[in-house]
Amino acid sequence: MxxxxxxxxFSAKSKKKKQNLPPTKPKNHDVRKRExxxxxxxxxxxxxxxHSRNGFRDYWLITMLYRHGLxxxxxxxxxxxxxxxxxxxxxxxxxxxxxxxxxxxxGDELRAMRRLKRENPDSDFIFTSERGSPLSPRxxxxxxxxxxxxxxxTFPCHPHMxxxxxxxxxxxxGEDTRAIQAxxxxxxxxxxxxxxxxxxxxxxxxxxx
Length: 209
Description:
This protein is mostly helical. Helices cover 52% and strands 5% of the residues.
């Protein structure tokens, strides 16, 4: 076979192979310009979640993702045995080699969890589907994305943005970086420093004449 024919055949096969490949996932930066939500946007997201089919569950799922800086896998794995109702404590088991920690549970969270437990007395898990099984990661992503759409947020929302939002919130309040690291379960403090780097307060006055 002549070289030109071979090259043409190879090119056709290569093109066909590329056409059969699944679409490439766009980079986060190409979809949205920031990977966190402001305090106002978090409130809008939570309020929008109230009006879903499982509004009470979805509201508190988003609330706990945000307040405790949970990853999706950590949220769906939350079990009642991790809750100390008497002392209002939550044992947070971190994944990705993160450090476990114990968080305080606010009063409204405590009341919400008591209701969730009453509504699903036979489940070991805090957040469950209508069938009583633990929520899947896909379901959590859908809940947050739908709430973002209903809230009118102009860019796609995903659950991990809530973890970042908590980190930025704590940094903007001037909390100690080591304390934020422990709260979020970061093994490496470099992941925590990201939040203080983007805190605009350290640049206050830089642009004034």
